[in-house]
Fold this protein.
Amino acid sequence: MASKVKCPICDNASVKHAFPAEAFFSCDHCGHYFRVPEKNIDYRLQLGRNKNNPWHVSKIENRSLWIEPFLKPHAKILEIGCAEGDLGAKLLEMEPTLQVDGLEPSQDAKIAGQRLGTVFPISIEEAVSSPERVCDYDLILAFHVFEHLASPRLGLVQIRKMLAKEGRILIEVPSGLGGSNHIPIDRNPEHLQFFSSSSLCLLFERAGMEVIFLQSGYVESLVYDRCTRLIAQQATPASRKVEVFTDYFTEYLGPKFSIYGIGGMFWQCVEPYIDPQHLEFLFDADKSKQGTNVLGKPVLAPERLRVDELRGPILVTSIDYEKEIIELLSQKQGLRSSQIIPLSTLLEAQLHEP
Ligand SMILES: [Zn+2]
């Protein structure tokens, strides 16, 4: 049966009732399921929601281990839906210089406020309409929050406002309609959104964010034993990424450098990002390449290499034959190891942590 209700993620107007007589809708475009609540749920009166949950301790442990690589000293963290602040307190134990704030609409905010930094006693949806605060959180955490939101898109707009330019959002939601490998439908009345991996990514990508991690199969509890985790950051235009990578090559290689290996890796990972005016010599052992013109310079045979003519390092672009080439350059041509830069080392050094 067609309905006037639209998919809250992709705006598809042809959503269908997933089951007769139940208020679940499904969207064929993005695989999302959702419910339209009859009345808003008031979280303000709730208290001690995690108190007797046997899964709670292992859940906090598991989440903190996932977040650990992101815990830089003095980082500013906001946990949305921080409950009593157990996760935040654990993170502070791991890295005491952190600033950990929270957002929690239930009465648990009072307990969290005694353990964390500032705890705002509101929901993320209320934060949207509250006065703008200056926030620049390096990490925003939201475990099992997005499935509660009537408008996840609006919630995400607010979260982006609170995120630092280079900040990241780490979230977890139940996967699909059940969030479970054995229970087919999640009938928790607080849950309104049931994300497919497509709808979850779409939510973030439509908001101008780049998904850098997406994985399903996480166990939250006996009921929610199939959950999805996602990490997103503000999207960077491809043109800016090219600029950053080009600057990185220039900085790493210095004002003068040469290249050994004019093969696939050179054309894929080096040639588009180097400035030819910094290039001195090009070498390749392949006779069919020798004498050809690349970036305005002739490709030379390795025997033509003269150590005293080099004014900068030599970048070895082959990864498959890297070891052999380095051996040749150091043993036969007499280059010092400081004069040889393997492309693999250059790329590894550029990998962001984590
Ligand atoms: Zn949709």
